[in-house]
Fold each of these.
Amino acid sequence: MRRITTLTIALALLAAPALAADRAAADAAMRRAMAAFGAGDPRTARVEMQNALKADPGWAAAHAMQARILLALGDGLGAEAELERALRAGVPAASISSFLAHAHVLNGNGEAALAVLDRDPPPADQAGYAARIRAQALAALGDMAAAEAAFDQSLALAPKDVATWVALGRFRMDVADQAGAVAAADRAMAIAPRSVDAMVLKGILVRNQYGLVAALPWFERAAEIDPQDVDALLEAAATLGDLGRAREMLAMTRRALALDGRNVRAFYLQAVLAARARNFGLARSLLQRTGDALDDMPGGMLLQAVLEIDSGSYEQAIGRLDRLVSMQPDNLRVRRLLGTAQWRAGNYREAIAALRPIADRPDADVYTLTVTGRALEAIDARDEAAAYLDRASTSAPRGGAPFDGGGDLGTLAREAALDRGAPARIRYIRGLLAVGRGDQALSEARALQRAHSGTPAAHILVGDALGAIGQPLEAADAYRLAANISFNEPVALRLIDALDRGGRRADAIATLNLFLTQNPRNVAALLLASDYFQAAEQWGDSIRILEGLRARIGNRDALILNNLAWAWFRKGDADKGLAYAARAYALAPSNPAAADAFGWLLFETDTDRRAGIELLEKARAIAPASPAVHWHLAQAYAAVGRKPEAMGAARSALASPGFGQAAEAKALIARL
């Protein structure tokens, strides 16, 4: 977009006579603008073209050239206005129809873009460009097959056009063809190694494929080549922010705003930075500068909902999150936040409906399980509530799990049969997994994998199906194929979990370390690393991770505080352990894991044995199937001479499958 891709307009512009009173000034400014634009400096070109138009406001060709420059800057509205002026001044419609269609695409009006191209076919030397714009318009309208055909036509006409390869890469990325997107980006880089647009696309794909650390040099190099490229600056800023390098992120956004003082994404990133620092007032102020531009952007909607929940505007947040869930039904974070908003608003049935798809997963987090259980209690469904609260009593496994977004299996099957596209087939396979039909899910997933080998979701579903039928190492092989395309959090957690369940813990830990090397602030991965350190009794390493998370999140996460309590206690600092256990319990008094930890530490440290036993009994009442709680009670009862109760609790612990301290429990019973 920074280079003139056709000589027709350029020659016409230079040949057009200036009719201004200051003809020489207008012509000189035009030539300076053309030189700057050809050198890849559209911002300078825009200023020079403004000078030309000031000298000759009626110069039709100058309006057309200014539109071309504005297109390169991504200003669709400005370009459209300049092209309309050019048309009124006498520029032939066909000569600029490609540019007008491009402006319509930037403005989100794909139908208008197609109408322009059909009504005023562009000249032959713009055919490749026009085909690219047609492809982008079709993609915006959701006609992906026609868009792909138009991209093929564009490349057949202009096989070395970098802009088309970049647009194709972004199109493939949007349709989840990560491998195809990488191939397109690599082709663009091969044609033009210093193309900033290609470099930014490559950085985005590297970030998806390998992680944040690997991606950052691509954006930094792009910004070095063109310090005025706002996209490169903002992609670098977003990556720096996710890496926790807040000062550098802020500096990048300020550089972007110096170039484009109304840039919505720059204000959004600054608002995210403020929200991460829990400066919600500043975050709101920054978001206000974006007007309504973020109302339909998922990231903006999510941030606005967080701020609304913080201010107590629950119903407003619920409306926004309901719409976001309909846009992204598989986004667990959004569903969890919606459940939180419904819970705080007292809408218990709605909270259950939002959270249950997450709570029913084998890797459900403690917070979701607890809120779901309490919401069920609030509607007097106590038996159901007990099941969720019981699961909340122990740390959930952190491996990824297939998400069942709901829906009747028959309906899903019909949709998959009528629309053989990947999204419908993915929903059907997930439905099969949800009802336990693993073999059939595997057959369908393998067919999808053959048809869409460049799509990570296809390999993930094969892995999910293999895991469901008890083949974790085969599942790991499928997840590894997905990881080769996109090594993101869901893929990494699934791969780690499958390796661990297959008896290859060393490989699981190596995979986790690799993921953390690229994504050092990923919360789920850090919590998993902490779990591994605790399992290996490496308390110091576990504490280092958990204290780092606490510093970022604050004293608001009962699970982190509870894990810190155990780690400090087992490291030998009973006072710190007890303090963290007390904080965790104060934060979540109905959480059985928090009650268990606080009760056990009160008992073990002789701080208050009676209160400790009472808390352990409370934990047992909330989570009667937890072997850990029964075992703690057995030891506490035995220590205070309550032998029959100690034997009963020990036997309850032994009755739980997978209880890891069976030998100690049997020895305790024998002593009693």
Amino acid sequence: MTGQYDVIVVGAGPAGLSAALYAARAKYRVLVLEKEKMGGQITITSEIVNYPGVEKTNGTELTEQMRRQAEAFGAEFAMAEVKGIDLAGEIKTVKTDKGEYQAPGIVLAVGANPRKLGFAGEREYQGRGVAYCATCDGEFFTGMDVFVIGGGFAAAEEAVFLTKYAKKVTIIVREEDFTCAKAVADKAKNHEKIEVHYETEILEAAGDGLLRRARFKDNASGKEWSYEAPEGTSFGIFVFAGYVPDTKWLKGLVELDGQGYIITDRDQKTSVDGVYAAGDVCVKNLRQVVTAVSDGAVAATSLERYVSETYEKPELAGWKADIEEKRTMNVEHASVSDLNDGVLITGEMKSQLADLFSGLQNRIVVEGVLDGSPMADEMEQFLDELGDISDMVECRSRRESDKVKEDEEYPVLRILKENGDETGIRFYAVPGGHEFNSFVLAIYNAAGPGQPITDEERTRIGKLKGPVNIKIAVSLSCTMCPATVMAAGRIAAEHDGVEAWAFDLAHYPEMKEKYQIMSVPCTIINDGKVVFGRKTVDDLLTVLEES
């Protein structure tokens, strides 16, 4: 797949959405690429009260409105992970796992990822007590003690959020005081369920499979102290120690500073003509939503002038003519990334799905095996609405009394071939929240043509020795889970011996207990090997090859 655009924006956080809005409003053909979740890191923020003109909102609501604004001016969106970028020449090429896209102008708004501290036990207990996202994993620590590591805005805000679940929250601040705004810090300092230790750092996390104890050092006195969970219980450590820019793949392509942040001028231009950067990935003093959207606006307006001047070059006459024709056509592209969260399928969502399903190569069956549980009732409602959309997707259900096999589990949504054979893809969950996209893509992958994969990945999938069962424990509020579910489903669609089963962990406490799951996504291979964190097709293949 190759798409031609005037501007390609990499990243759909506030900076990328702002750039898309301004560039699309200037009548340019704009594509926004996002690998995980529209809205970026800010979507995990439960309360925003310092965005001018908006008295109170949350990260998801604010960025969803930004996306809709950009879309209203014609910006297109695609869920795709950038694998490489060619910045040589007037026309740049962005290579993704969905194909290649080209444009004379690029905006890099790739943001940053949570920073790991490197204390003893951090890696070993990630997913089993050590976590980095309060929204994703907070519920797993209900009634437990929780430690929050960090003294910035995220640490203070997320510590308050975690009091909804935790019995007590202890904040470990390395400095003499919080480094964020006083109003934010005071909420944490004055909360009855929060205790703060200043000039203190974590040295070690330890346990016996689950997190049982931690060791700290008071740097003011030089004394060490420990915490040990009550017998038979565990506790949580949430690390909010800032972010690391997502720029390893850009090294040698654009100029970076010593910490990996992109260096730009006052117009957000990088060291490469036609390439601009915006948001938290840039060298800057303040990383907030308001500065991110400012960066995006500046980058887009500066890029507008650059692209206009570039099109005056005689050698780009053909390209300019092609782009102008595409703008005139104003083709609407249905994208599963545009779908709203929730169990019920709105009219707008049905219209988008109808376009997507019309391109399926084979008919597919979604079958619900249902019992008398509330989740089964929701599944049945979901199937009723999904079944009205396209003849290419047949929906049906049967009750537990009609089980085909004695050991058949339910309630479950099974994606089947037209003849009733298993594709290997199942959802032990109602595909709501962030999992709606992964469910729709599972259908797309099973029916064909499927998400593009590289020749190397296809070869590696073919070499897998089945049977392989992949269980993915998810939370519908987790922004990282869908990528792993999509990756597993893509592999299962390509290999008859691979099963990909997604479980909403809220309904399967026995799974949480059996595999000692304290963070999602959690991937279980053949009921044995357990790995945590977001996984791409390449990542998951590596895990399978090592199993």
